[in-house]
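## Example record

The block below lists the input lines for one assembly entry, exactly as stored, with component labels intact.
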Amino acid sequence: MLDEIKITKAIIESYLKDFNKYLESDALICGAGPAGLSAGYYLAKAGVKVVILEKNLRPGGGLTGGGMMFNKIVVDEEGKEILTEFGVSCEKYEENYYVACALETLGALVYHTIKKGAKIFNLITVEDLLIHNEKVSGVVINWTSVILANLHIDPMTMRSKFVVDATGHGCELVKILEKKMGKVLFTTTGGIIGEKLMNAEMGEKFVIENTKEVYHNLFVCGMAVNAVFGGPRMGPIFSSMLLSGKKVAEIIKEKLK
Ligand code: 48H
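Predicted structure tokens for the full assembly:
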């Protein structure tokens, strides 16, 4: 006989065990889009204790919808190498242009990131940052449902040695930092510079070049990079998102040594 209470207890106990374990981590990534997932995968692959927080029900961010709801994405040669590592099939369109199924890419990124050892918690929104001695030391979290319902319920916290803003166009964590601390960012103006008009070639290069620390212990990867440092958008080509995740993982890996 199946006991409903046992089913409930199994879920609660297992979830809370995981949650308790990841209240403190080496790296915490906010956002499970392609950049955040890639960062989580490469950090976990290097043996780093890494947690990814995603506000939505499902991970994937802007990847899932492909280009204008045509659920396909394009990658170049370098992006294809990463997708191949994840076991995603890429169809050659022309030299340096490969097409992949957005859903297959999403499934593979989520599966391999978790299998490598990264923990993903969905339905949790990061709503503030923890700062100690002028360094980011963690995040302030609440259930997305609490925020959507506009309920007055106090948040809780998670501590991490390094925090990554992988929230895409919104660069949500950097925005919070700028709002509360002013022009302290490691940008040319000290503030968020803002995303520029579309240019695929320049946008892709800019993301990778500018994937870095934006404030003490706070890093940006993916589309958030161009929003913060003032790079162009690039449309539905996803190589730089994957490569930026990989780059931020390498930087953090070095810092942890
Ligand atoms: C928890 C949060 C919070 C929060 C947001 O938008 P994303 O897909 O971001 P990237 O950088 O991985 O990829 C960008 C790409 O999808 C894209 O938009 C491109 C290439 N655009 C080009 C163009 O020209 O438009 O994922 C960000 C994730 C999402 O899943 C959000 O739900 C999540 O972050 N998120 N999670 N707490 N406060 N804010």
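The mean pLDDT is 98. DSSP finds nine helices and eleven strands in the chain.
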